[in-house]
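hey m, so remember when u said the C-alpha cells were messed up on ur end? i reran from scratch. heres the input so u can diff it against urs
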Amino acid sequence: MGPSTDAQQGGSAPVESSRGSRMDRWLARASLMLSVTKSIADAVEFAPLKGACEAVVTLLDSIQAVKSNEYAWSELLRTVQEHTTTFRRQLAQLGINDILEEYEDSIKGPISDYFDILKELIASICIDSGLEESEFDKGLTFKRLAQQIATTKLEAGVIAGYEKRLKDAESRIMGSLIVYVTISVNASADADVLSQLKCKEYTRPRECQVGTRTEILEQCTSWVCSPNAPNILWIKAAPGAGKSAIASSLVRLLGIHKQRLGSSFFFRRQESTVTTTRALWRNVAHDLARHPTIRKHLAAKIKKGHIDLTTPNIGEFFHQLIEEPLLRVGSISSDQSPVIVVDALDECGGLEGANSEERRDLIETLALWSQLSHCKLIVTSREEDDIARNFALNPPYTIDLLVGDETAIQSTRDIQAYLSEELGKIAGRYSTPSAEWPGEATIRTLAIKANGLFIWASTVVEYIRRGNPKKLLEEIVRGEGTAGMKALYTTVLHAAFPDARSDLLREVRTILAAIIVSYEPFHLPMLAELLGMDEWTVEHVCNALRPVLEIEGTLRFRHQSFVDHLLDPDTTYLAPCLTTSNCHQILADRSLCIMKEKLQFNICGIPSSHILNEDVLESTIDACIPSHLVYASSYWVDHLEHTPASEETLSLVRYILKVQFLAWLEVASLCHFVYDVPPLIFANNGDDLIPLATDMQQFVAHFLDIIAESASHIYISALPLSPPSSAVRRLYESQYPKTLLVTAGGYQRWSPLRNTVSGHNSGVSTVAFSPDGHYVVSGSHDGTVRRWDVKTGIQIETPLEGHTSFVSSVAFSPGGDRVVSGSDDKTIRVWDMKMGTQIGIPFEGHADRVKSVAFSPDGRQIISGSGDRTIRLWDADTGGQIGLPLQGHTDAVNSVAFFPDGHRIISGSNDKTLRIWNVETGMQIGEPIVGHTDYVHSVAISPDGRRIASGSDDKTIQIWDANTGMQIGIPLEGYAGAVLSVGFSPDGHRIVSGSFSQMVQVWDVETGRQIGQPLEGHSGCITSVAFSPDGRQIVSGSDDATLKLWPY
C-alpha cells in the first residue's frame, strides 16, 4: 500500500502544482491588465474606471494571499460580491455623456464583459464549493463555508477556460481603452482650446421672490415650448420694473427644471469694459460647446486659426462663433432647442449707451440672431429707440411689464408679497416687534407708491433695513415726497448724510463720480487708494449708501436708475450736479497723479535684462504694481478722452509723457495690456503734445512684440534702436546712458508702412475700406475678390470667386454687409460679406468690360461704368436694370460715383471729360466738365458734395466746383506718370492719389500742396487708393499684387 500510495501522491503533485501555477498566472495577468487600465484612467482623470480598477486589483491580490486560508476565503467571497455591485454601479457612471455617447458600445461593452468574467469566477468558486450564490443572502455561516471550501478543487481545464476568456476580454478592453483615451485626450484638448472663449464669472441678480411673477414666468415657458413662436422673446419695461429678477429666475427655471438653458449673460453698465457684445457671444459659444458637434467644430476651427477672436467685424465674429456652429448641428426639435437668456441690453455700452460702438454691435447681432431657427433667445431691456427700431424690423414675441397707471394687478400683488416677506424678515430681527407690523394697510400703501416698480420696493426695504425700521417706515408711508424713484432717491441721500459738512459732501460726490464712470468695478481699499482718501472715510460713505449701493465684494449700484438720478441736471443734492464729463475728469486727474507719484524705472526690481516677463513672479508684480496703479495706467487715456482738459490736467499729461512714458510702458508690459494701449490723442489745447504723442505711438507700434515679451527691452532694445530723430529717443536716451550703443543698424526713420498684405496671384486693381474701417476688400487681375482684416492683415476665409476675368472695381454697401464688384467679363456681382457667397445671379447688360461700380448712399441702387461708353443703374436687391443706359460719353467710362445726396452721379471717361447725371431722369446735368488733356481714370466726390476731384493720364489731379463745373485753383502736379486713383479724406480737407510712379501722395485741398513725403514701398504702379473712414489710415493696391496699409 505504501508504495502505491506514495506513487499516487507523487503522481498528483504535478497536477496540483500546475493548477496553482495556472491560477497564479491568471491572477497575475488580471492584476497587470487592471493596473494598466488604472494608469490610463488616472492619466485621463476618469474617476469611475480608476476606482473600479483599484478595487479589482485589491481583490485579486487578496485571492493570491488567501488561497489556503478557509476563513479568508469566506471574506474574499463576500468582498467579491460587494465589489461586483460597486463595479456595476461605476459602469453606469461611465459617462461624460457628450464624449461617450457615440462610443458607448465600443467602450462599455468590453468592460462589461470583463466584469462578467470576474463575476463568473465568483460563481465558479461557489459552485465548485457546493454552494449557491443565493445562500450568501441566507445567513451562510463561516463554518459551513470553510467545510465546503476544504473539499474544493478547481480543475485545470476550468482555469484554462478562464485564462482564454481573460485574454480575449483583455484584448477587447485594451482596444476600447485606447479609443476612450483618444477621445478623452481630444476632449481635454478641446476644452483647453475652448477655455479661451469663457469670460469672467459673475453673480446673477436676485431672483423673483417665490410665488411672485408667476404669470410672466409661465408666459415665458409657454413661449419656450411653442414651436411656431418667433425665436426672440423681448421683456421690456421702464427702469426698476424687475426685468433682471425675472431674467435671473428664468436662468434657474430653464436650467434646473426644464433642462433647456443654453447660456445666460447679464450686461452691467458699470462693467461695460467686461460685459461687451463680444463677451456675450464668446460666453454663449463656450456654453453651447457642451454639445459635442459644436465643441468639435469650434475647437478645430480655433486650433487651425480659422476663427479670429480679435476680429473687429462683429458680423463675422457672430457668424463664426454662433451661426456656423449651430448650422452644423442641423435640426433640433423644438422641445430640446437651447434657450439663451440675456439681461439688460440697454446697459450695453455703458454710459454712452446707444451712441457706443458696443451697442451698435449688439443691435447688429440681434438682427442676425432673428434669422436663426436652432435656438431661442430671451432678452430684457428698457424700450430705448435703437433697440425698438431693431425689433420693429424683426418683430419678437414681446412681454411688456407695465408700470404707472397701467400697472398690472399681478405686479401690484407681487410687490405686496415681496414687501410682506422682506419687512417680516426685518421685524424678525427684533425681540418685541408688533405682531401686526407692518400691517396689510401699510403694505398696500407702499405697493401703491411703488407704482409697479420693484426697484422702488427693494430700495425702500434696504433703506428701512439700515436704521430704525418703525421710524423709517412711518416716514416713507407719511411722506408724499417719497412716491416715485426720484423722490425716494432724494430721501435716501438726505437720510444717509443728514446735516453733512461741505467737505463730506465733496467726498461723497467724488466717490459716486468714480463709481459711475469706472471701467472696472472697485473694491473699497482700491477705491480709497485711487481717490487718495482715507479708507475709513470711503467705507463710511459707502455704508451710508447701502440702500442704493452694494458693497460686498466690488462696489456696484443696486440699479442703474440711481445713476440716472445722479446725472439728472435737476438733482441738486450734490452741487454742482454731476455730469459724465466731470466724473471722467475726476478719475483722469487722479490717475495722472497716481502715475506721477508711483511710476519708476524697473518698478519690479527685475535683476537682469535676460529675464522675460513670463519669468517674473505674479506675486512680485502684484506687490510692486498695486491694483490702483494698474487701473490708473490702464485707463487714464480713456478717461481723458471724455474730459475737457484743463491746463492743470495737460501739465500732468506733459509730465507723464516727457518724464515717465517708458516707466508707464513697463507697467503696460508687465500687466499685459500693452496691446490695448489706446492712441495718444490730445485735443482741447493739447495741440503741442500731438507730435510727441504721434512719435510715441510709432515707438510702441514698431517695438510692440518685444515690449510685450520683456519690460527690460524697452530700455535695452527699443530705445537705442529708435531713429535718431525720434522724439522719444531724444527725450530719454540721456536718462539711460548704460543702454546699448548702436554703431550700425536700427531705424533711421520710422517706417510709415503699417502692413503689407499679400495673397493675390496677380496685380491688385481695386481696393475699398468697409464703412466701419475694420476691413478692406480688394479685386485683382486673378479674377478674385478678397477680404482682409485691417488690424492683422490676414485674409478672411477664402477668396470670393465667380468672375471669369479681371476684377476692375469693388465697393462696399453703406451697411458693410455687401460688396459689389465689376469685371472685364462684362458682369457685376454682389457678395454677402458675412457668408462669403455670391448673392443672386450676375447683373448682365453691358456690352464691354465693367470698369467701375458703386452703391448709392441708401444701398438700394448700384451704378456701373463700362468700356461700352455707358453708365447703367441697377436695383441692388433684384439685379434688374433701372431705366435706360446713361449715354453721352464718347469713349470708355472709367470711373463713376454717387453724390452724397444720392440724386446725382459723376463719371470720368477716356474722352477726357467728366459728366454729372440726374439719377431720376437719367439726363446729363449741364455741359461736360473739360480741362484734362488725356484720359480721366478716377473721380471722387468730397463728403459735403461740393467738390469733385479727378485724376488723369495727363499726370495731374484737378479739383472742380460740383455745382458750377468750374476748376478750383490750379492742377495738382508732381507725378512722373498717369494718376490712376484719387479719394477724399472723411473731413474733405485732403486728397490721396496713386499713380504709375509707384508712390502714394496726399494733398491739401485748400492750398493744393503736397502734405509730407510720398509714401513709397510698392514695386508696381498704384492702381487704387482710399482713406479709412476715420481718416487715420490709407490703403493702396498695386500691380505688384500687394495691398499696403499706411498710418496717417
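this time it looks ok to me. Residues 870 and 887 are 5 Å apart (CA to CA). if urs says something different then somethings off w ur setup not the seq
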